[in-house]
Each structure stands twice: as C-alpha cells, then as structure tokens.
Amino acid sequence: MLNPNLDEIQLNKEEYERYSRHIILPEVGLDGQKRLKSASVLCIGTGGLGSPLLLYLAAAGIGRIGIVDFDIVDSSNLQRQIIHGISWVGKPKIESAKNRIQEINPNCQVDLYETRLSAENALDIIKPYDIVVDGTDNFPTRYLTNDACVLLNKPNVYGSIFRFEGQATVFNYEGGPNYRDLYPEPPPPGMVPSCAEGGVLGVLPGIVGTIQATETIKIILGKNTTLSGRLLLFNALEMKFRELKLRPNPVRPIIEKLIDYEQFCGIPQAKAAAAEEQQAMSEMNVQELKQLLDSSADDFLLIDVRNPNEYEIAKIPGAVLIPLPDIEQGPGVEKVKEMLNGHRLIAHCKMGGRSAKALSILKEVGIEGTNVKGGIRAWSQEVDPSVPEY
C-alpha cells in the first residue's frame, strides 16, 4: 500500500524510540516511518543479495516482508550470505532468515514461501505485496519476476553480482523501463558462469543488496530520486561507480502472460544437447581414475582444466593444469597436442562441466578424450576426503 491512510497508522512508544534516527530526518519524518510500517515487500531469494537486503528492511521498520526460497544453508554460503549462521547449515534458508529478522525486529510480519518461483505461482505470490526485490542469480527467474511485476504493475528492485562487479536499478516504476529493456534476449545457456564457477567477493553482495534496500525504502517514502531509468554499475576491485541511462524500448514485445521461462532461456534445449553430447563422450568415474593412477600406467595424460587459483586449492595427483580459457583461445590446444604424444587423454574440472566443454573443443581438432564424471568434487567425496572441497 504505497499510498496508505497515515491517520490510521500509529507508532507505539517502543517504535518511536526504535526509529528515532529516521523520524528526525526531514526526508523521512513521522509520516515516512508510518509509510514504512504500512509497506509490504517481497524478496525473491535469501542468498548474497537477499541477506543484507532483508536485514536492513527489517531494521528500517518494513511492516510486512515476504521471502521466496527453496534452498538450504550450505557452509559455502557463509562467506557472503550474512543472514545465515553456522547453526543453520543444512536447514531451510527462509527459516534461518525469519529467525534473524525477528531477532532484529519482532514487529515485522514475515511470510515464508518455501518454493521455487514459477509461472504457475508467481502472480499469486507477488500480488499481495507493494514492491518486489529480485535477489536471484539466474536468468529464467529474473525474466519471470520482471514479467509478473509488469502484469501486476509492481516496482521491481533489481540487483546482480559476479566476481568483483555488481549492478542495480529499479524496473517497472512509474512508466520506467523493465528488465527486457536492458536484456531483450537471454544469453546462451552456460555463457555467463555462476558464482560457484566464477567466484564472488564476499562483501560485494553486501554493497549491492544494501543499494537495493535503499531504493526500496525510497520508493516507499515517495522520493523521486530512484534508480529507475539508470543502471548503476559498481566495480569493487577498482572502487568505481558508473551509471548508464535506460529507456523503455518502444518496440519491445507486449507482456500478456507468463510463459515457460526455462524454455525461453534455452535451458531444456541446452540440457538435451549436453546429455546427447555426454552420451557420445567417453566417461569414467573417480574410482576408475584412482585404479588407473594406482596401476602406475604411463600411457595417458590427465589434464585439469580449472583456473590456476582453483588448482592451488586442491588437485588430483599427476594432473597437468591446462585451463579451459587457454583451450578456448588456442594455446591450450597446442599444449595438449605437444604433451599427448599418442597417449590417452583424460580431463577433469570441479564437477565435470568445464572438462566436457574442453573435450568438445579438442574433439573438433581430432583429439578424443575421456571426461571424469563429477570432477575433483567427486574425488574428494569418494576417493580422498583430505582434498578440500570448495
């Protein structure tokens, strides 16, 4: 309710004290704090972006917060997803988030949706809320969130992160652009690495998520200074902000209904192609690789196509590092040719995806190879637990 009847909203004595630093700001004041109390915000995701976002929205006095997530807390999340703690590892993220929110502000109503947002449920979940904040990390859900917000005329506060870089803006607000104006078409599946593959600086989502929280609060307060029409770009390594103008595309397709966003982003097609390629590709499991290594055979070349910094974390004995980017750009192919010398080629990576891609590239130049299923993660889990998982 972005235009509430402020006469009907009252703060109690504890709330006056809690929000005193807000209330004394002329730009917020008592009316602004009442607006925050009456507002409802839906956060999609409780990961890197959702963590600081939820903490600050709850602390600011948002009256109702909805959370959509179906994941559980993993120890690898704790480097950046600061709403979760060690005691919540293995438990639902939404329960962890609710527990932390209520520690910060017991007056905040927290609604939980432990489900994957889909074309079937998105409109029903989003409809009761004033503002939607997108804290997701995949293209199908971003397009789904955008289209649902367009259909329901809800502001969509957007953020994304990768490695040292982040983006933030406000979509679908007061006639401004939406996500499809920035990205009319999704990138090919696999073109943009996930944070699990590419990494992310732990503090980066804290910065971008806090910017999203700021934009959400400004929308509720009715401030005409949001990022709508502006894409904020942040580089943490260089500590630089840049800004690009965004405008609605006059020829963009009209959004009339929600669609199959996995299909739209080419996910099923990519999976089918990968499965077909994998079926045609020679594979071995980590136990078979262990037997081969233990046999002292010298008629094979085992390559590791991960990045050098990953190789420093953990390695399989005897593996030669030839990173996938080197293979994609050519020098790695030449290195494999030089070292292969008629031997059998075996490739591994973290989980098997990048090594399969490397072998596909090598196959195009006549080099056949065998992929290690599950990569070094499977090696750590099934063969040598002393090898660190990351």
Helix and strand arrangement:
Layout: H1 13-18, H2 20-23, H3 29-38, E1 40-44, H4 50-60, E2 64-68, H5 93-104, E3 109-113, H6 122-126, E4 131-134, H7 139-152, E5 156-162, E6 165-171, H8 179-182, H9 195-198, H10 204-221, E7 230-235, E8 240-245, H11 261-264, H12 267-280, E9 282-284, H13 286-294, E10 300-304, H14 308-313, E11 320-321, H15 324-329, H16 331-340, E12 344-348, H17 353-364, E13 370-372, H18 375-382
Query: Low-confidence stretches at least 5 residues in length (pLDDT < 50)?
Result: none
Helix content: 40-55%
Q: What's the domain count? A: 2
- The CATH topology of the largest domain is given as Rossmann fold
Q: Please, what is the average pLDDT? A: 94
Q: For this structure, what is the CATH class of the largest domain?
A: Alpha Beta
* Structural class based on helices, strands and sheet pairing: alpha/beta
* Computed CA radius of gyration, to the nearest angstrom: 24 Å
> Numbering strands along the chain, what is their spatial order in the largest sheet?
3-2-1-4-5-6-7-8
Terminal residue distance = 44 Å
Tell me the β content.
15-25%
**CATH homologous superfamily name of the largest domain?**
NAD(P)-binding Rossmann-like Domain
Shape: elongated
Instruction: Kindly state the number of beta strands.
Output: 13
CATH architecture of the largest domain, please? 3-Layer(aba) Sandwich
